[in-house]
Amino acid sequence: MQIPVINRSRHALPEYQTAHAAGLDVRANLAAPVTLGPLQRALIPTGLFLEIPVGYEMQVRPRSGLAYKHGIGLVNSPGTIDADYRGELQVLLVNLSDQAFVVQDGERIAQLVVARHEVVAWQPVEALSETGRGAGGYGSTGSA
Q1: Annotated binding site for substrate
Q2: Which end of the chain is more exposed for a tag (fewer CB within 10 A), N or C?
């Protein structure tokens, strides 16, 4: 799949780190480091502008290494870049640890996964089909 991209950053385009990786690592594009204190969040620019094909979304997901080693995640995970969005890709990081974390220019901050999606057409009905779970809510499948 080819995706049109404008790269206004000082860094290479997002890339796969291994032959079978699903996510492309995207880098911070910063004029100066950004410090995230405990429980702080910041919108980190990437310098990338994308044209996602209609029928697809680009999912922005956390990097497991940042999450495990430093408690850094994404507030809206996964984030979605829609096919009609043309602004800069920015990543909303959050520091869930008790230590400050410094985001450096060029640091790999998230991964991008392309996913096909369907467009929903609602079908109003008076009743839904029966299932074993029924109306059981959160945690209902593990209780006896």
Answers
A1: 63-65, 76, 80-82
A2: C
* Cβ partners under 8 Å of residue 23, min gap 6: 16, 61, 111, 112, 113
How confident is residue 136, by pLDDT bands cut at 50, 70 and 90? confident
Annotated binding-site residues read: 63-65, 76, 80-82
* Nearest CA among 33, 40, 115 for reference residue 82: 115
CATH of 5-119 among 2.60.120.330, 3.20.20.210, 2.70.40.10, 1.20.140.10: 2.70.40.10
pTM: 0.87
